Amino acid sequence: MIIVLLGPPGAGKGTQADKLAARLGIPKIATGDVLRAAVRDGTKRGREAKSYMDRGDLVPDSVILGILQDVMTSPATKKGAILDGAVRTVPQANGLGVMLDEIGKKVDKVLLFDVDDDELVKRLSTRTVCEGCQAPYMGRDPGTSCEKCGGKLVRRKDDEPEAIRNRLEVYRRQTAPVVDWYRDHKKKVLKIDADAPVDDVTARAVEALGK
Ligand code: ADP
Ligand code: AMP
Fold this sequence. Notes:
By secondary structure, the protein is an alpha/beta fold.
């Protein structure tokens, strides 16, 4: 099963993708994580993406479609994938659709996590993430250790106030139209009220997916 997670930055896509991946037994694919690893490793893709990411802008569609092509044709996603933040523009939604069609697959479900802006800003400005496995945390100080892999928790550069403001604006301008694109292409978008405790949001998502 291929599930696309949509929603603004801070809506909890990464948090819920981890929960759903464990529950459904299919991997989480977060393009943000792939890009941050590429930046850390200094690859060509990472060098191309870094300045966009630091400002909170979207990296070019060609870079994302290259990642999606690699990932969706890899044996790791044979049983499906939870695509976290991997579809952020209409050309990406279209490109992913074409690519999946060519390999006899399709997007099965689209989940939209809904949270209002004040809560998003609060979450992003207090988020820490693991430098190693990139798990997101709330209420944990930078410098403390990741519960999952023991890595160091750090603040993301794009969780500074100016980049947060830009990312919310970029979401409205470039990503929100993806919701209508899926609806126009006969995909039901399952909207989840994600302003609730993490486990409640997971329960809502599982129910919406009919799992
Ligand atoms: P996204 O991947 O959509 O940007 P994250 O999953 O990284 O969002 O979550 C953003 C921040 O909000 C993280 O610090 C995370 O721990 C926290 N968070 C996630 N879900 C919730 C929730 N339901 N309630 C409160 N905080 C949450
Ligand atoms: P995220 O970890 O999902 O918050 O993504 C962090 C940053 O990576 C974004 O602000 C973008 O700069 C970049 N990024 C991740 N996924 C995409 C995508 N599908 N399209 C364009 N840029 C992306």
